[in-house]
């Protein structure tokens, strides 16, 4: 059964949303680039995502690098770019 919420805070995510996640002991902020709902290469690795368990490709505001995270690892910030 698919969940109605995407993030640990229970809010849906969309392209352009500002999010934060824990990385190496500190909080990193960035922007959602895309929602991944099938097996794909993203963020330098193969991601085993599905419509029931999507993952999100995000771009760090600090480094500009892309990463992929499960919705539970992301916290939606206020505002959109």
List keywords for this structure.
81 residues, 5-stranded antiparallel β-sheet, Hva1_TUDOR, DUF2945 domain-containing protein
What is the tally of beta strands? 7
Low-pLDDT residue intervals, each spanning 5 or more residues: none
Give the rounded overall mean pLDDT.
Answer: 87
Shape: globular
Supply Rg. Answer: 12 Å
The main sheet orders its strands as 6-5-2-1-7
End-to-end distance? 32 Å
List the secondary-structure elements in sequence, H or E: EEEEEEE
Number of domain units: 1
The helicity comes to under 10%
Question: Major β-sheet, in short?
Answer: 5 strands, antiparallel
Class derived from helix and strand content:
mainly beta
Beta-strand proportion: over 45%
Number of helices: 0
Overview of this structure, please?
With 81 residues, the protein is an all-beta fold. The protein has one domain (17-80). 0% of the residues lie in helices and 49% in strands. The protein contains no helices and seven strands. It has strands at residues 17-23, 26-36, 40-42, 45-47, 55-60, 66-69, 75-80. The strands form two sheets. The protein has a five-stranded antiparallel β-sheet, with no helix packed on it. A two-stranded antiparallel sheet has the order 3-4. A hairpin with a 2-residue loop joins β1 and β2 (26-36). The termini are far apart. The model has no long low-confidence stretch (mean pLDDT 87).
